[in-house]
Amino acid sequence: MQFSRFSDFIDMGGYGFYVWLSFGAGALLLTLLIISSKVGHRKVIKQIAQRKQREDILRKARATKTQQTATHNPNLKEEIR
Amino acid sequence: MWKWLHPYANPEVAYRLTTKLLPWLITLTTLFLGVGLVWALLFAPADYQQGHSFRIFYIHVPAASLSMGIYFAMAIAAFSSLVWQLKLADASAAALAPVGAIFTAIALITGAAWGKPMWGTWWIWDARLTSELILLFLYLGVIALHNAFEDKNLAGKAAGILTLVGVINIPVIKYSVDWWNTLHQGSTVSKLGKPAMSLEMFWPFLVCFIGFSLLVGVIVSLRFRTEILSRNSIRPWVQELVQAQTKAENSK
């Protein structure tokens, strides 16, 4: 142990400001990077899920539409088949 | 070798492998960084000339050398993507760029905070500092190009070309202290031969360096998985995975 008291540790032999600025800035930037990486991952998963949902709805709508037109005219029903 | 490597070029296999490796990487990172930082800040001896300001060394040097190492890795990925059209290489290059940019920024900030008490100035336009600043701009350019195109293949190509052109800057940074008369001191931790520092300082440095390298591994893995998902979003395995994840989140 290089420091006998906690205040000595904070003071860093007079260089406290520079040492803690360095380690503080490093910790801050790395934390922000990790958080943004995690948020980005979750966002991509959400986007893919939303797109899938939208496509499912569209597909369902299309299916019911063709069914409706098919029941209204029997000739078209034959054509679809 | 190619036959053995081939399955890993499959995005699904790469995704699952990275997911499996992540917890191990996180554990190792916490261990090494925890031990390394406590050692560096509390137990390593103060420098006889620089006093306790020398402790900045333990974050400045790993950040600076990783900023170059990450760029080199990114260049290899960009090259394999341009030559062999490996899709995963593109994804890893895109995952590496922001991490490299952050490490470059840390190297610059900690360097300034070390330069002020030692040289009397936060910044000076000398060869080492200027070339490291150019590295930051290269990273920012690569990130911007990756995000500039809707088509990820096109974006990867453009960013890859910039990456390869920028490789010229790496030896300039590395040897700037030898080629020009700079304020920045020469290298103390040469990888070949004996380091020009006492072992009491070298060991905590090595532990910190390994810790920061592992941290790069963790963050790049996180981002690599995101890149794989967004590039393969229409594949059935991604759809299944997303469905399972959203279901798990909704049931929470």
Main sheet makeup of chain B: none
Q: Count the beta strands of chain B.
A: 0
Distance between the termini of chain A: 84 Å
Quickly count the domains of chain A. Answer: 1
Put simply, the count of helices of chain A is: 3
| SSE arrangement of chain A, N to C | HHH
Mean pLDDT of chain B: 90
Strand content of chain B: under 5%
Strand content of chain A: under 5%
Question: What's the CATH architecture name of one domain in chain B?
Answer: Up-down Bundle
Going by helix content, strand content and strand pairing, the class of chain A is mainly alpha
Instruction: Characterize the overall form of chain B.
Output: globular
Main sheet summary of chain A? none
Name the poorly predicted regions of chain B.
Answer: none
Order of helices and strands of chain B: HHHHHHHHH
Written overview of the protein:
The complex is a heterodimer of chains A (81) and B (252). Chain A has 81 residues and is mainly α. Chain A has one domain (7-80). Chain A has helices spanning 6-11, 16-72, 74-80. The radius of gyration of chain A is 32 Å and the shape is rod-shaped. Chain B has 252 residues and is mainly α. Chain B has a domain at 24-40 and 55-190 and 211-233: Four Helix Bundle (Hemerythrin (Met), subunit A) (Up-down Bundle). Chain B has helices at residues 2-5, 11-43, 57-84, 87-119, 127-148, 152-166, 169-179, 199-231, 236-250. The radius of gyration of chain B is 20 Å and the shape is globular. Classes of the chains: A mainly alpha (81), B mainly alpha (252). Chains A and B meet through helix 2 of A and helix 2, helix 3, helix 4, helix 8 and helix 9 of B.
